[in-house]
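Predict the 3D structure for this chain.
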Amino acid sequence: MTASPTSRRRRARKSFVERTITGVGAAIEQTVYAETYARQDGFLQRVDPRAKVGLFALALLVTGLVHDLPLLAGLWLGLLGLGIATRLPFRVIAVRTMLGVPLFTGLVALPALFLVDGRSLFTIGPVGSITLTVSDQAVLSVATFLLRVSASVTLAALLVLTTRWADLLKALRIFRVPDVFVIVLGMTYRYVFLLLRLTENLFLGRASRTVGRTSSGEQRRWVGASMGTLMSRSLKMSNDVYAAMVARGFSGDVRTLATFRMRDEDWLFVSLGVALLGLAWLVDLSR
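Done. Predicted structure below.
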């Protein structure tokens, strides 16, 4: 007896357990994969983490101050080129900036197209008694906002992808970021990774013990029970981790084996970066 096309399509669809396992596994793989980029022998990977953190913080400040559209576009394109020059796949940079920024930031900036005054470019409507007018200043404001966010997100992505997490946290401490913030950030990063692995094992155990299809109500009940189990296990794990750290002499100060040393190339990178950012800011002020 041949199965109907409808039944074949139902069997082809993945259950929520399979989709969750796939999503959690992809998140773990992405985390580990991003760390491999930081271990490559690229341009930014060789730069001292202190130099990158300081220069990128200055670049974020300049990006927030510059209003000239061509300058922002040039800064963003330069960052994309820097990412490609440092052996980062263009697809990785595009996923982190070009896809997320228009989707989320564009939704936030969309109302500004109809609220900012200026010379009218075109009119939408009337829809009932409402007529929406898009002005040139509105388009300019939205484009500036999108470019500014795109450049900022690209800066953050380049810093995270080309710097090992432990080195990044140590560089933050050198810049006098509060120790509590650095410790919480470092523990959260590792704990989220561990929690993802725990979630994946939980769903794998469910999938390996399930024969056939289950009803939607049963799946929802299992998800509710699993959320409580996962919460209880995560709280117990956090207490166990802290107790283990205290037993091994933890006193609030995290130490790493990495030793930072500024080379001539690092000083040259910082000098050129500061000069270019200062020039961009002066050009923006003159316009």
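Confidence is low (pLDDT under 50) at residues 1-12.
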